[in-house]
Design goal:
By secondary structure, the protein is of the alpha+beta class. It has twelve helices and nine strands. The chain has helices at residues 2-6, 8-21, 47-65, 82-100, 120-128, 133-146, 158-166, 169-178, 198-214, 254-272, 278-292, 298-311; strands spanning 29-34, 40-45, 105-110, 184-187, 190-195, 225-228, 233-235, 238-242, 248-252. Strands 4-5-3-6 form a four-stranded antiparallel beta sheet, sandwiched between helices. Helix 3 packs across helix 6 and helix 3 packs parallel to helix 7 (158-166). The mean pLDDT is 90.
């Protein structure tokens, strides 16, 4: 990166010329593993390739792909994200209450191994429907260079993230346009629909499964289920609950709190033995605290602050 930035004008001009005469080729990739939020392999590319791909994605691919998306396709888009998705879900819960009261049914869908099971043909088809031939040729070259074979991607590439929000676009339109499910939201491969009756929720689940099958996917049997709205909805790290008076509340998952305390306690021990800076532990705890503050977590944060303060007295 340093070499590229020190010679930015020359490198940019050389890349421009190679793109114009068709001699630009993607470089080699490197793989490494991460463990949070879950274990997965990430593909890393060279800095020059990142510059090229960022320009290709931001200027040519992304603006074309997002045209026609439903409003409630919430991941990896400008002015959207986890906060946006959480607020939309709370709004759907309140809207359901105004029409049907606190009772209802949830159809929650998750794809089994979304990126690992994504067929390259399906991803390329999603791009080819919206990209002109010359842009499609460059996108295809990047995807095939980084991910050989016929099935499976790693979500380390911005282009693959765009594929991730695009491949299930038919599912969104099936839910919204064909089935008329107003209270439907999707964040990457996690979708939630709130419906008045169990029969409607089960019918939606069957339709989700059929649509996924046509795209080469299957429902995750452990995470895809139909259940009463009163049980609460687990979505994007929080538990959402609708009260009898119509309030939509959002609480940090208990497992998230346990994981935080286990991790922070381990980091504090390292800091107390001189193997880590106290500021690093403070920063990690503050990051969790900021996350928790997005929900209805005043009491939890107060208890956690007291726990964290006492941690340094042990």
């Amino acid at each position: 990166m340093a070499s590229h930035m020190l010679n930015l004008s020359e490198r940019t001009l050389a890349m421009s010329r190679k793109l114009q005469d068709g001699t630009f080729r993607c470089g080699k990739t490197r793989e490494f593993d991460i463990t949070r939020p879950k274990r997965r392999t990430i593909v890393s590319v060279g800095f020059a390739d990142r510059v090229f791909q960022r320009s290709l994605n931001d200027n040519s691919i992304y603006p074309r792909m997002v045209r026609g998306f439903v409003k409630d396709n919430c991941a990896c888009q400008e002015d959207k994200g986890t906060d946006y998705a959480r607020e939309r879900l709370k709004g759907f819960m309140r809207r359901h209450y105004r029409r049907h009261g606190p009772n209802g049914w949830v159809c929650q869908m998750d794809v089994a191994g979304y990126y690992p099971n994504m067929r390259h043909e399906v991803a390329e088809d999603a791009f080819s429907r919206k990209l002109p031939p010359e842009i499609m040729a460059m996108a295809r070259a990047v995807m095939r260079n980084q991910y050989p074979g016929e099935v499976g991607y790693n979500p380390g590439s911005q282009m693959i993230q765009i594929a991730g929000i695009s491949v299930l676009d038919p599912l969104d339109h099936m839910a919204k346009d064909l089935m008329g499910i107003r209270n439907y939201i999707r964040y990457m491969d996690d979708a939630v629909a709130i419906l008045p009756t169990r029969e409607e929720a089960e019918r939606a689940m069957a339709a989700f499964g059929d649509t996924l099958h046509t795209l080469g996917f299957e429902l995750n049997p452990k995470k895809s289920r139909v259940y009463p709205l009163r049980d609460g909805i687990e979505f994007l790290g929080f538990d959402f609950h609708l009260t009898d008076t119509g309030k939509a509340l959002m609480f940090v998952k208990p497992s998230n709190v346990k994981d935080m305390r286990r991790r922070i306690r381990r980091m504090a021990r390292l800091a107390q033995t001189g193997k880590m800076y106290r500021s690093e532990v403070d920063g990690s705890y503050q990051g969790w605290r900021d996350h928790a503050s997005k929900g209805d977590s005043f009491g939890l944060i107060r208890r956690s602050d007291a726990w964290y303060k006492g941690l340094w007295k042990e």
